[in-house]
Description:
- By secondary structure, the chain is α+β, with helices and mostly antiparallel strands.
- 47% of the residues lie in helices and 14% in strands.
- It folds into 4 domains: 30-199, Sandwich (Immunoglobulin-like), CATH 2.60.40; 206-283 and 292-417, no CATH class; 438-514; 516-619 and 660-699, Glutaredoxin, CATH 3.40.30.
- Residues 1-24, 160-205 and 533-537 have low confidence and may be disordered.
Amino acid sequence: MNRRFIVILLGFIVFLGPFSQNYAQILDPVKWSFSSQRISSDEFELNFTAKIEKNWHLYSQYIPEGGPIPTTFTFEPSPNYKLIGKTIEPKPHKMFDRNFEMEVQYFDGQAVFKQRIKSLTQQSFNVRGTVEFMACDDSRCIPPVEVDFDFALSASPESDQAIVGIQNTETTPKENVDSSTASIAKIYNSTPLTDTSTLSASPSKEEAESSGLWVFFWISFLGGLVAILTPCVFPMIPMTVSFFMHDEENKKKARRQAFIYGLSIILIYTIVGTIVALTLGPNFANFLSTHWLPNLFFFIIFMVFAASFFGAFELTLPSWMVNKADQNAEKGGFLGPFFMAFTLVLVSFSCTAPIVGTILVASASGEILKPIIGMVGFGLAFALPFTLFALFPSWLSSLPKSGGWLNSVKVVLGFIEVAFGLKFLSVADQTYHWGILDREIYIAIWIVVFTLMGFYLLGKIRFKHDDEVHHIGVGRLTLVIATFSFVIYLLPGMWGAPLKALSGYLPPQSSHDFDLNQIIRENVSANFNALPRINATTTPSEQCDKPKYADIFHLPHGLEGYFDYEQGLACAKKLNKPIFIDFTGHGCVNCREMEARVWSDPKVLQRLRNDFVIIALYVDDKTPLPEDEWVVSSYDGKVKKTIGKKYADFQISRFNVNAQPYYVILDTNGQPLIPPKAYDLNIDNFISFLEAGKQAFYKIN
């Protein structure tokens, strides 16, 4: 009896296995609850609480154009109320996403959004609308989801408590029709966002932010060390040390003053960072990422810094400010060393301002701590040699002598300022489509800049403050080798090489006018299509109808295919080929990564081109469909009126999956031949998937 029970139980588990596994692929990582609170007699605060599953991320409302879909609150117009300001969100996490070349803001765990409204009626009323959002974990994303909300607000304060209780539910009454699919039932289109592999799991978010600040601290620290090796700072080290060591009778006092001097330098730069943090505020990052004005301003600032380093002019502060600080340096106690440190900061301004400015611009990401951390790092490195040499004056004898090499440091920094300053012009150019700084122009400028820098280090180019270079040492030779090696690395980029190590700094590949790889692919494809071939290698364009939507969609690597399921299915029947469906999206970085790293393999490309009819279905496209092509979802009962909504619903309804990329191989009747495949960068696995699909097709045909 027990054995029979076990056998039946195991058989039941085996029977349910595929269904439970398939059902589990419908992802519903964000649950919403809604509540309201009366603020005054005619004002209410609406609360939208998102509970986000572990390892998943919800995006901020403030995502620049071209990035992932932001969280958006839409309120139905009503004469009964008006909105007070915008919907307020909690402080998001931030990271720079190289794929979108912008800073991305997101939430994990729980996020509470708040919206104030003002009542315009003396009667009870409802506030209705939708919240649209998308979410990702570290390997996949769900399409954007719409969740309805409905706040029932009373005119009298006495009945508020009951109303709040009704609203504080996981879903609205409309969604409770099917609570197991509460939020996913609102899916309509998808943009499988940024490279989610760069987003760590939620328990380590604080660690990731802390790590990023530490990296920035050490970069700023390095900037402080470089600033010391400039002609306005380096010669001041022995002068400053002699000031503290003049009192031989009280060395203890001198050392104490040296400590105060070093701490004062750090304090002064930290104050500068604090002012920047408080002035720019947490909303500056979005402004910096999207608006041309700050980017153009920073570009000009970087060029001014570079010109100063090249010796065109010196950045100087008013003489009265320097003189006043110098006079106060004669005071005793704590004030003397402090004002002496302040004098050093002012006198060295012409050399340190470009470096400090670069650090502050790099820290303008909306994080309050970042400019402060940056200036602490810079100030610590800047103060370190002055303090150490004051404590151990005998070390001064080991310092190299001042000379032309100090000016060389400035000039090299000038070249670097030019190169990095282009990034800001590039951001403005891409955002507003000016077409000034396409990818190959950007790379060409970098090649010229670093070539000139290499010749400068060799002594072949001299600026007006430079000494003649009769020979070069090992250190300078090392820099020459590194510089020219970098130039050689850049050269293939002029013809479309990806230059992956610099992807975060270069304009996108799509802005490259002369992409040799693309030209070769197109020519190979044209020649391939011109050759006489048997039916097994006939391309869809030769025997089937011209693909719909070919003006807005394109397959990579010169592949041909369809973007409409019905049309692709008809072509597959005509050619008697299996169907390869690619559920994808415009903003799906994981999809692009699969295409770049897996589809580009010659063995994969050959199979996709010859053995399948490819149907790429974009689940995030907003192109409206003609009314006669609208579909009513069998999943949520809603009418789908755009290409993206239609095929996002198709993926969910047919395959019970809502993440991309997702690959399915079908026969000519639209039936799956083998289990589908998701994101997998293993080329051999993908080839096995294609081969298994092809073999399964020809077994039944």
